[in-house]
């Protein structure tokens, strides 16, 4: 694994994963709006069109429903398309193809076909892109049996999970937080996968388990460092996969620390943290809880355009610190 | 639903609290954020705000009574909300019963109310883990005082629970509280009038500040003070300290101890009190208490005041460093700062040459320690330079006369100047 310690950005890691998949398997194609010559709304596809040509790096019309439909159809008929949305918010336009077609087909046709499509969703707030381009909708899709929904938080994981997604026989939805695209981190060379459905304990601790997703993993780790200086020992679990959820890792962590806080950017109510909380409350870890389960999620509001309000609408490090401190000290 | 007003936990080790003052009465209208009452612990006082707006009813937490943390002490009803009589208390009520003979306050737990409701396990607020541990350990959850919000019982509460425990407050530092400062003192208003309006800021007193003020007024106005001062040559003490520290065994890569001058001063004073037991006393009207132990309260400056952790039995490898650190963090346990038969106040670290301290009853003496300074010393007809430390002993003259004070201080100096004697 550690043959190479080179660093790539999150978006470079995605591009490298797609290139490796395309080199290895000619059935792998890329589709999306402006991913060809333009290189993608966030320049993730870059110059792959020069390497693989317009037949395998295909620009689609400005119709998410149409593009997603072509991708699903291509997957059913034997290709392995990776379809990019410009913003995850536009999944709303393609819900018919995602929810009623891709997620259902294997089940309704008795396993005669599978839909090995990968859909990539630039997600989240923090870029000043306002209410229609900043949402975190992983819980919408996480609610649909038949889909796999992942939120890699690091360059290492996004490469490995994207390659795992391409290899997966079922539709996989990848939510890529836009603020992560420029984040750098070590990425091994060559082909490797990071399993879908497996959470990662990023920091071990005794006093509290924070289960976080995507960019919140990094905020939780920063909060944990600050609290460590106060003698508070926080365990940070990177959920990585929203569906199927890694019950085993989270239950084991909560049994150890007796306290759970969920930190996620999606709207708090009916979000990923709601599922985590309920899952723990139903599990054997219930009898180990020594405090209420706390959720820190997005505000019950569209993402504001005003940059200060935009920041305030999703969990930030100081809020994580004070909530964790209160939870450990028995104030909540 | 009326909103419970909870007696909160304001101090790490706090199991019960005492309401010193209610600012609102029954059936009065309160606004969220109004200061409802003030609670007092040994070390702190805190104003507690109303958690909601409405009508205050059913004040069950009386003033001056020890109440378990997390108990409901009153309820706030919304304007127009139906009132159907007092809600049932959810937590054990603990009553303080002053014992007139000893002045001690005994806290008697009255689990009867709760025991009656013990069958309704749902009434006890407890975390799932606390419930499981209580069940495994055969502990009646309703008898456990919860430290969490709303009296919620947590793992730590179950672990710290001792069945049928009868806790009693220590009366070690209790003093008669009857003394009131003379009425000739100018009123607050008169004092404020001496200064132009806007030329000062009025900072509310903390409970600790009030306690210090009250006790020092009592001490200085009821205890006749008498002072004796001596210079001590500490050259030999510094040398011995260096030798002792240099020969400290190494444990886990660190020296097992590092004695300070203050550690040795505490030791010397405790030994002097043992050697002059007539000075190791407390005055009571009934008779003189001659102490069998020499336990030294050491004044530690903390934000907003001071506190005196006790070094017991003339320890040399004292826990003073640990006690001092925890005193500053407000984490001393009651028995770590109550009691003691004499006291030391050391301002040497601030370069203070000498000062006189106020006796802290029931102690009869307090030793004020100045800085060790290089000073010219006359020996025979020669002037040499030595490190000299000036100490002033304040005594309660009712209990310790001048000659006895001089004997005690002289004995102290002989330990300081011939520090090897401290080792035998």
Structural features, described:
- The complex is a heterodimer of chains A (332) and B (424).
- Chain A is an alpha/beta fold and 332 residues long.
- Chain A is built from 12 helices and 14 strands.
- Chain A has helices spanning 10-24, 48-52, 64-76, 95-102, 105-108, 138-142, 155-167, 215-228, 247-257, 272-282, 307-312, 317-328; strands at 7-9, 28-32, 57-59, 80-84, 118-123, 148-150, 172-177, 184-186, 200-203, 208-212, 234-238, 241-243, 260-267, 294-298.
- A 7-stranded mixed sheet of chain A has the order 3-2-4-5-7-6-12, with helices on both faces.
- In chain A, helix 1 (10-24) runs parallel beside helix 7 and helix 3 (64-76) packs parallel to helix 4 (95-102).
- The radius of gyration of chain A is 20 Å and the shape is globular.
- Chain B is an alpha+beta fold and 424 residues long.
- Chain B has 2 domains: 3-159, OB fold (Dihydrolipoamide Acetyltransferase, E2P) (Beta Barrel); 224-423, 2-Layer Sandwich (Chloramphenicol Acetyltransferase).
- Helices cover 23% and strands 27% of the residues of chain B.
- Chain B contains 10 helices and 22 strands.
- Chain B has helices at 112-116, 128-137, 155-159, 188-193, 207-222, 235-246, 261-275, 320-328, 334-337, 402-417, and strands spanning 3-6, 16-22, 28-30, 35-40, 45-49, 54-57, 66-68, 72-77, 93-98, 105-110, 225-233, 250-251, 254-255, 281-283, 288-290, 296-298, 300-302, 305-307, 310-311, 342-346, 365-379, 382-396.
- Chain B has a 6-stranded mixed sheet. A 4-stranded antiparallel sheet of chain B has the order 1-8-6-3, with no helix packed on it.
- The longest helix of chain B is centred in the middle third of the chain and has 16 residues, at 207-222.
- The model of chain B is unreliable at 89-122 and 165-183 (pLDDT under 50).
- Classes of the chains: A alpha/beta (332), B alpha+beta (424).
- Chains A and B meet through loops of A and helix 2 of B.
């Amino acid at each position: 694994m550690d043959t190479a310690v080179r660093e790539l950005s999150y978006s470079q890691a995605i591009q490298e994963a797609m290139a490796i998949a395309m080199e290895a398997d000619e059935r792998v194609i890329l589709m999306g709006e402006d991913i060809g010559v333009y290189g993608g709304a966030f320049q993730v596809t870059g110059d792959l069109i020069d390497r693989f040509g317009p037949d395998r790096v295909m620009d689609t019309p400005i119709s998410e429903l149409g593009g997603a439909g072509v991708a699903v159809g291509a997957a059913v008929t034997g290709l392995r398309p990776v379809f990019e949305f410009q913003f995850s918010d536009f999944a709303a336009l393609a819900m018919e193809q995602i929810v009623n077609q891709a997620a259902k087909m294997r089940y309704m046709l008795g396993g005669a076909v599978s839909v090995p499509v990968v859909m990539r969703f630039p997600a989240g707030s923090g870029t000043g892109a306002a209410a229609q381009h900043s949402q975190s909708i992983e819980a919408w899709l996480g609610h649909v049996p038949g889909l796999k929904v992942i939120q890699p938080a690091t360059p290492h994981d996004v490469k490995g999970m994207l390659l795992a997604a391409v290899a997966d026989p079922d539709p996989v939805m990848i939510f890529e937080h836009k603020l992560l695209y420029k984040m750098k981190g070590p990425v091994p060379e060559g082909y490797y996968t990071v399993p879908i459905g497996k959470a990662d304990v990023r920091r071990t601790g005794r006093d509290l388990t924070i289960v976080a997703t995507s960019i919140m993993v990094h905020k939780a780790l920063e909060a944990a460092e600050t609290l460590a200086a106060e003698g508070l020992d926080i365990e940070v679990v990177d959920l990585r996969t929203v569906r199927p959820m890694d019950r085993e890792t989270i239950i084991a962590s909560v049994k150890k620390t007796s306290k759970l806080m969920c930190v996620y950017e999606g709207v708090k109510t009916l979000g990923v943290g709601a599922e985590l909380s309920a899952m723990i409350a139903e599990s054997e870890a219930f009898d180990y809880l020594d405090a209420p389960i706390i959720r820190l999620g997005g505000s019950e509001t569209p993402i504001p355009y005003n940059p200060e309000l935009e920041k305030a609408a999703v969990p930030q490090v100081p809020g994580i610190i004070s909530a964790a401190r209160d939870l450990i000290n028995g104030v909540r | 639903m009326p909103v419970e007003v909870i007696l909160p936990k304001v101090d790490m080790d706090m199991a019960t609290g005492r309401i010193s003052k209610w600012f609102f009465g029954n059936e009065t209208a309160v606004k969220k954020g109004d200061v409802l009452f003030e609670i007092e612990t040994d070390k702190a006082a805190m104003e507690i705000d109303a958690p909601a707006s409405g009508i205050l009813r059913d004040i069950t937490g009386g003033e001056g009574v020890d109440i378990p943390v997390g108990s409901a002490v009153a309820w706030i009803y919304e304007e127009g909300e139906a009132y159907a009589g007092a809600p049932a208390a959810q937590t054990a009520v603990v009553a303080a019963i002053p014992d007139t003979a000893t002045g001690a306050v005994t806290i008697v737990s009255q689990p009867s109310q709760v025991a009656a409701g013990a069958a309704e396990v749902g009434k006890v607020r407890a975390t799932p883990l606390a419930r499981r541990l209580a069940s495994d350990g055969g502990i009646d959850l309703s008898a456990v005082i919860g430290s969490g919000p709303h009296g919620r019982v947590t793992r730590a509460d179950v672990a710290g629970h001792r069945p049928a425990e009868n806790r009693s407050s220590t009366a070690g530092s209790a003093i008669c509280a009857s003394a009131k400062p003379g009425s000739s003192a100018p009123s607050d208003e008169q004092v404020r009038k001496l200064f132009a309006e806007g030329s000062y800021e009025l900072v509310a007193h903390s409970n600790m500040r009030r306690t210090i003020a009250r006790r020092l007024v009592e001490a200085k106005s009821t205890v006749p003070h008498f002072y004796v001062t001596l210079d001590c040559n500490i050259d030999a003490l510094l040398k011995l300290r260096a030798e002792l520290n240099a020969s400290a065994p190494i444990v886990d890569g660190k020296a097992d101890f590092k004695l300070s001058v203050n550690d040795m001063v505490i030791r010397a004073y405790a030994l002097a009190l043992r050697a002059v037991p007539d000075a190791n006393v407390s005055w009571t009207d009934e008779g003189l208490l001659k102490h069998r132990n020499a336990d030294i309260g050491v004044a530690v400056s903390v934000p907003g005041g001071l506190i005196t952790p006790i070094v017991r039995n003339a320890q040399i490898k004292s826990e003073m460093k640990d006690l001092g650190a925890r005193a500053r963090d407000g984490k001393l346990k009651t028995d770590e700062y109550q009691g003691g038969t004499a006291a030391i106040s050391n301002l040497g670290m601030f370069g203070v040459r000498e000062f006189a301290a106020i006796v802290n009853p029931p102690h009869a003496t307090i030793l004020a320690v100045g800085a060790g300074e290089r000073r010219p010393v006359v020996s025979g007809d020669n002037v040499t330079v030595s490190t000299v430390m000036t100490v002033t002993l304040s005594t309660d003259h009712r209990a310790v006369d001048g000659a006895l004070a001089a004997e005690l201080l002289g004995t102290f100096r002989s330990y300081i100047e011939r520090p090897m004697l401290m080792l035998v």
